[in-house]
Amino acid sequence: MSGKTNGGRKATAITLKVALLAVAGALAGCMNDSEAERPAAELTSTPSLSFSPSFPCDQVGDGSIEAMICGDEQLSALDRELDGVYAAASKLAQNEQPPMLAAEQRGWISGRNDCWKATDQRECVRTEYERRIAELQARYRLVEFDGPVSFSCDGNPANEVVVTFFHTAPATLIAERGDSVSVMYLQPDENGSRYQGRNESFWEHQGQAVITWGYGAPEMQCQRTQ
């Protein structure tokens, strides 16, 4: 009897082990199925950015404006857009004398990096990119435009300002007065179209324009002549 009892206990133990192994296998299978159903990105332990600017991010300093651009999808996209616009402008500027575009771009990059001084650094960088893109598109006629349109100022036909409007974002105009040229950007205004440059401004409403030309210069009352 004792022999039969021991044999029965052994059989029971073996059956229990088989059952436990089956349960463990089923659980492992469920875990594997669950992992297989998860997106590959969730299984990757180290996340990677799907965007980048036109310059290598592994060479920028921590906390720099370049580092901010590398970590921001919109700013990276603006940098790539500017890179393409600059390349197109460079082809058109090959015969310019003296060659100024490359030096201007280096100066612009220096100015962009000065955005670390701004209260809202990201907004400063975004604005710098948008205006530089618009400026190059306007100067090198890379977008559609309207004009040129002539304005006679202060009742003197010789005091003429010639304006061309460009379909950029933000909207841009290039104004010429004698040998001087000014690039201006559209500003919000409830009473007409107002553009602002470095030291010049242009405001127009129904063919009448108010133009200032130079730092501290008085306003000129101008009439569209064509």
From TrEMBL:
Superkingdom of the organism of origin: Bacteria
Domain Lysozyme inhibitor LprI-like N-terminal: 64-136
Transferase in keyword set: no
Span of the signal peptide: 1-28
InterPro entries reported in the protein's UniProt record: LprI-like_N (IPR009739), Lysozyme_Inhibitor_LprI (IPR052755), MliC (IPR018660), MliC_sf (IPR036328)
UniProt-listed PANTHER family: LIPOPROTEIN LPRI (PTHR37549:SF1)
Name of the protein in question: Uncharacterized protein YPO0702
